Request: fold
Amino acid sequence: MSKRTIAALAAAAATALTASGAMTSQALAQEVKVGMILPYTGVGAEIAQQMDRGMEQYLKLNANEVKPYKITIIKRDSKAPNGAASKIDAQELLTQDKVDVLAGWVYSPDAIAAAPVVTAGKRLAVIMNAGTSFITNLSPYFVRTSFTLWQSSYVMGDQAAKYMHAKTAVVAYTDYPPGKDALAGFKTAFEKAGGKVIDAIPAGGPEATPDFTPFFQRAKDDHPDVLFVFVPAGDQATAVVKTYAALGMKAAGIKLVGTGDIVPDNKLQAMGDIAVGLITVHHYNADLANPQNKAFKASWYKTYGANATPPDFTSTGAYDGMAAIVHAVKATKGKIDDGAAAVKSLEGWKFASPQGPIMIDPQTRDIVMNEYLDEVVKGSDGKLHEKVLVTVPDVKDQCKMLGIGPCAAKK
Amino acid sequence: MSETRLETQALSRHFGALRAVQGIDFKLAAGARHALIGPNGAGKTTFINLLTGVLPPSEGRVLLSGRDITSTVQAERVKLGIARTFQINRLFRGLSVLENVCMAMAERAGAAGSMFYPAGRRTDIIDEAMGLLQTLKLADVARHRVSELPYGRQRLVELAITIGLKPEVLLLDEPAAGVPSAESHIILDAIERLPEDIAVLIIEHDMDVVFRFAKRVTVMVSGAVFAEGTPREIEADQRVREIYLGQAVAGTHHG
Amino acid sequence: MSVVAPPASAAAPTAGIESAAARMLMRRHRVRWWETLPWLAGIAFYFAAPDYLGFGCDLLVTILFALSLDLALGYAGIITLGHAAFFGVGAYTIGMLATYNVWTEPITSLLLAAIAAGAVGFLSGLVLLRTTGLTLLMLTLCTMTLLYEAANMGAAYTGGFDGLPSLPIGPVFGVFEFNPLYADTQYLFALAVLFGCFVFVRTLVYSPFGQSLTGIRENVLRMHAIGSPVRRRLIVCYTISAALAGIAGALSAQTTAFVNLAVLGLDRAATVLIVLILGGYGRLYGAFIGAVVYLALEHFLAQLYPTAWQLGLGLLLVLISLFARNGILGLGETLWRRFGPRRDTP
Amino acid sequence: MNFVADFAGILLGGLAAGTVLFIVSVGLSVTMGLMGFVNLAHGAFAMFGGYIIVLAMNRAHFGFGVALALGFIATAALSIVLERTLYRRLYRGGELDQVLFTIGLIFIFIATLIIVVGPESQTLQLPPALAGQLNLGLLYYRTYSVFLIVIGLLIALGIWLTFERTRIGGQIRATVDNRRMAESLGIDVDRLFTITFAFGSGMAGIGGGLGAEFLGLDPQYPLKYLVYFLIAVSVGGLGSVIGVYYASLILGVLDFVLTLYLPKGGTIFIYILTILILLARPQGLLGRKEL
Reply:
């Protein structure tokens, strides 16, 4: 009890130091300034906190990795996802704070708007969450350690046909780019594997949580084998699972599948038993058994308390992003402000992440990682857990592989 | 007799079952000084609203100098020379007295639509407005916000605005209403000094005002013309005394 | 609009103290010395804070947007919560023209944006300006949201939520390129555009037309009674205001080389409303004060307390609304009246 | 047959959604109608109540009913304090000052919540009794939705009766119609304001909790759903309880039915409906006076 409080205090102090480090740069070790662009206010605030914690945990667990360098994080609020604030943040971080690296970006439009600045600034820019596939084509200094919706949804489409032997599917998706990517990814793979998507239903926008009843009712009337759903992780996910149960679709023989976003780690317990048996594909879940994740989780709860929101894919995206930055710092012997060299040092970089082995694709500068086909099961502890059914290794972003639309690499 | 300015033929207005105005034939001669009296709810204000085009009539016609304006909208009738004051002040309370008058004059002069030169350059309008204010003894408060004036003088501004429209026909809806008797004379003086050729129709409860001012009087009762004549005749009319004057005299005390 | 030529200024007006009032009216439109300050400040900012020019552009755009709203809300009293509709139309005009390489010359594109936004303003004005108050507020809001949804449905062309990336914007006068890292060209360009629009708006509000708008705000029934074509005036005013908002949106698209759905969002519409009320509406310079205070506070508070800055902002808004009538300028005027040099009238 | 059941399901869903909207918005309608006060921060009270309720259940492990009562009381209390100290200073002020004030208030609520509770969204844990499915003969439907619909009906009836039958109700109606008249009749308008404001906010608080199942609950709540509250109020008609009830249900059901058959339309219908209704009836469905 008291021990934990102390630990928490210590952590808090540490954070305060790194934060205030920006002002008092009395660094004996070489200081590496990282400009962090995240939505600390507004709809994205929750994600920003999860990502801050992810980075903090990496620096905590790998303190001696970082030596002799000193990472200083300068936080900027990207506010509402309209691109403007993000772009100004990037400009000022580069021109005033003279940061060596840019990082962050929860929402794709913010990364997209900042792209010209990044290119002009000639600094490494690590995308730690934004998932729209073509972003990395917009600047040669972008490196992504998060994901694209194509990765999880493509694998889900493939597995739905091959593992679950589904013939027909209905897709319900939040009507914004990630949702459309998820639809495209799932459809492409599912139909390539012989299935058929018989209906695609846009189900409201990303912000206000819609009532999914009418959308799912329509899906139910279509009588597919599986209903593939993408919604932004959070309240919408809870609503999806509850509505699925409420409409008795399971009884009607329709399996609910999706990307991991519909069973986010921080909502899973709240969903209750109705979530049991859900099958999803994602690159991370809090129950992964690899040693890095064990250590990560242990330290996480030690720092933020046993009841803290569990770590999730946004946390690992930031965790891996910080790892990438540290690698680049060491590989360039501290000359990380040479963006081209920093990017070069990360092409083909491999790392053992809490989400399993990851690599940066030398061609696309995008992440290559495992995707896990998970099933929600009830553990002996009475809590819900994710059980890995299938591990699909080295998954690349199919949108770029297939060169679809703006994903096609600009030559 | 001088020719007719404003005329109504069988003018009626119904609100559902309520017949606010029914079948009124009425003539207002050029330069007339005509009073419209009647108990509350007799339809006097509705009648004014029909004349000014705020309300469309249910039946009947309105003619201005012989021309049918029944279907002409309010703004147009103003341009044709019908101006009115309201029973309750309708002023630009946030603006200065001078601005209030200039507003009306700019509309009359057709300047108000123009966008690309400052209003301040229309010195002709401003000077004219100042002139009017002087004749109405408002010049000393020309700079004051209307909202800062005592009610009596606000009524005067109400009058000034309509005079500023240079009307041929002026409809005054209880111009002295709500003005403490100590101040009411400033209104009446102003009304008396109105240009000769304007045809004036005044709704008034205060009999002293009516008899002092009007050359002709029309009595309205429950939407219809009840009697018409010179003040003397009306005063002498027994029926009018019975059903109207009694309560009106009572009305003067809190009028 | 009948444009009556001003008669050769007549001789000195009626003599005596009274004519002070007349003189006040005749001089009101003249430029005062302090009116040069915002522009001097704007130029000084360019040299003083070369690293803040991106923020500076955002500021100038917001001022212009608030100015456009002031014309409709502050002068004509048209209460709208949907002004971002026109901002968005302007921004997307630029976005579309640039993305599909139709036209990238910045100045003419601005005019096209103004025309597009003005047209939308005119059409919606025809339908909506019959209503007032909360009804009008909701109708403008819903109209804006409809455009938002339409833009989302047409995501294939508008880029939707992700937006249209890296817009190619032509050099100004074919010479001065926009600079993505230090937004210096953008800033000067935006400053010039703002100045032009401001001069236009200033002329407008001091013109007889502008006066009649004030009249409509102060007492619409009286305006009818003095023969003013109220509805036409409102529609004209709304159209002009929309066109200016369109220019603001276009300017934001040009200076950020980016446009996404957010330009049509309630966020944007509400913020500009707050900015204007905070500064003081119906005042011309309220737009400037409001934008500077609001954005500066937001920007620098957010740098100090990325997660908690909204608290400070909220407190400011509450305090201003409680202790100032009509925003910061209103407060200033009250104080001036109380402590400033004595005058016989406010 | 099956179609009938499905359609009944859609109707129930729409009614439930509409009910949530009603419970949160009704307070806003009355206070705006009564005081002519543009209280954009109404959603903030709903959020506050919602947090009280959810935290009381998840952290202090109170029962659902107790938590709801707690939410109502806490929100009403808070609103009384704010009304007495801040709101009433602005009753005489212009509506734009009120807009500025209430928006500022929203920011304060949001920031405070993020600092005190944190940015993460809260989830309502329904009591088992309400969590399951209910056999309605024709179809099985989620108990909680049915529960909501019933509660909403009771609340609407209750408020309506209060308005029609009780003295204070009469006073409120009189004041909505003509405030000066009411004052001259010796009605203590100030007291009336405080009471209705507290009640309206309390209702919003309950609504925040009851609605959390569908709308979720996070610091952005007051801004996320502001538009929907305003739509319900304006379409229903200022100061008209029954109007808001009808408006909420109609919008809820129509939105459901339309999205079922034309999903590509997305969320666009509710706005089109609002525009059409307001153009046809600017004062709203049952509004007594121009908004």
